[in-house]
């Protein structure tokens, strides 16, 4: 159920004043990551003004209170095509929210986002990992984690993918958009955005069983911050660590490198 607390959190992150503050202050720890998309829009000649162009930070994507898998990555990627009306109309997806969109549209976009996700191949890769974890946990697959796993075990049908999609929520340790994790290190090591408080709020809304840490940056962040690591370990969730779904190598390679934290 989409509660007032979840709605407030979506707006708190997507409308954070940090974005505009950081864009104007080179000394701000979020300056580089925030300005990434502004620079990309300007290169493409598509930057109109801050309120009508800037893609808002991502609080999470999916029905966080109903999902059984929380997939944590580093920070959301920026895709300028998500602001292109022609591209979005062709894909039958809504335009990515910008600062001057109304609150209800922003809330609905993120809570219902996996119903119209712009990167279906990424979501498919995530479902492979979730299905594999399910089969390990249920004993369907007897192969221990980190041992060789036959390719056939990660095949999913369209029906399975649709089912898993409804039980997944995507989130990041930092909600600001950039590509190749540009500016991520400065945000994590800085003091202008409270990564721990953000993660605590995400975890407070997530009622599912599994947390999947995707990628080395996420794992390094967790292991370097004992408070975050302790919070995850005490959450009562089953925590899996896996290479990022977009990293090099086949899905079978990535799944075989997955392990329990």
The first-to-last residue Cα distance is 30 Å
**Structural class by secondary-structure content:** alpha/beta
Which term fits the overall shape?
Answer: globular
- The string of secondary-structure elements, in order, is HHHHEHHHHEHHEHHEHE
Q: Summarize the main sheet.
A: 5 strands, mixed
How much is the radius of gyration in Å? 18 Å
Number of helices: 13
Helix content: 40-55%
Low-confidence stretches: none
For the record, the count of structural domains works out to 1
Find the count of extended strands (DSSP E, 2+ residues): 5
Beta percentage is 5-15%
Strand order of the largest sheet: 2-1-3-4-5
Mean pLDDT over the residues: 87
């Amino acid at each position: 159920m989409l509660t007032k607390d979840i709605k407030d959190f979506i707006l708190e992150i997507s409308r954070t004043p940090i974005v505009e503050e950081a864009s104007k202050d080179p000394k701000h720890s979020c300056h580089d990551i925030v300005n990434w998309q502004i620079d990309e829009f300007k290169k493409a000649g598509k930057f109109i003004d801050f309120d009508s162009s800037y893609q808002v930070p991502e609080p999470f994507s999916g029905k966080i209170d109903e999902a059984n898998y929380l997939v944590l990555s580093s920070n959301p990627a920026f895709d300028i095509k998500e602001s292109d009306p022609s591209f979005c109309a062709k894909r039958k997806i809504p335009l990515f929210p910008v600062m001057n969109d109304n609150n209800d549209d922003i809330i609905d976009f993120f809570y219902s986002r996996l119903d119209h996700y712009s990167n279906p191949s990424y979501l498919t890769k995530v479902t492979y990992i979730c299905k594999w974890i399910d089969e390990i946990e249920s004993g369907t697959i007897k192969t221990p984690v980190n041992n060789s796993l036959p390719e056939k075990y990660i095949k999913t049908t369209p029906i399975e993918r649709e089912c898993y999609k409804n039980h997944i929520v995507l989130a990041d340790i930092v909600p600001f958009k950039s590509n190749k994790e540009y500016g991520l290190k400065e945000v994590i090591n800085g003091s202008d955005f409270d990564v721990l408080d953000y993660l605590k709020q995400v975890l407070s809304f997530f009622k599912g069983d599994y947390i999947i840490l995707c990628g080395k940056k996420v794992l390094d962040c967790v292991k370097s911050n004992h408070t975050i690591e302790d919070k995850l370990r005490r959450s009562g969730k089953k925590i899996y660590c896996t290479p990022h779904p977009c990293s090099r190598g086949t899905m079978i390679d990535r799944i075989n490198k997955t392990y329990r934290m």
